[in-house]
Known about the structure:
Elements: E1 40-44, E2 51-56, E3 59-65, E4 78-83, E5 92-95
Amino acid sequence: MAAHSEEEPAETTARLRPVPPAPAPSSYGRRVGPRTGPSRTAVVRTALHPQGYVELDHVLYRAVWAEPDRTPPVPGAYVEVTDAREPDSDVLYAFPPAARHHARGTS
């Protein structure tokens, strides 16, 4: 066989027609019912749409936004997390932060 000495032409990429943005979801997250059991405060580290990561005790955990009728918080916001109800799940449920009635050291 003879060596092919001619260069192959570069492949071109066809320009596609613009795609309209996806419609905003009518709900966010997963409906899991009311909070059960103890909750802990965590910091959102990636968007919860519906799943993302929260930081708890300097460790990242996968979490799902558990209030589908409310817009999920942005990274840096605080959430309350609870363990999932499924025993084999390693995903936490994230809820809006609980209202604090009294600050520590005040009456």
